[in-house]
Amino acid sequence: MSRRRSMSLIAPACLAALAMGSPALASAQSVDMGTLGGNVCLAGSTNDAGAAIGTCRNADGDLVAAYWAATTGPAALATLAVNDPCDAVDINSAGVIVGNCELGAAGEWFPVVWTASIPGSVPTQLNALPNNAKAIAWQINRSGVIAGSSVAADGSAAAVIWMAGSRNPTRLPELGLLPPLIPSSTECVVSDMDNTDQPVVVGICGLRDGGTVAVRWEPGLFGYAATELPRLPGGSNCVVAAMNSSHRVAGTCQTDDGDVVAVRWEADGTSVTYLDYLEVAGTSRQQLIAVDMNEAGIVVGNYLADDGLARSFVWVPVGIPDQEEGLDIGTLGGPWIKAVDIADNGSVVGTGQSSNGLSQAFVWTPVTGIRGLGTLGGFSSQSITLSDDGSKLIGNSQIASGHVHAFMVGGADRNVQRPKGGGVSTAADLEGKATELRNLVKNKIDALNPDAKFFVTSIIDKAKALRPKAGEKPTLEELRRSANEVGEKHKALSEEAKESLQSNFPKIYSMF
Question: Where is the signal peptide (predicted)?
Answer without folding.
Answer: 1-26
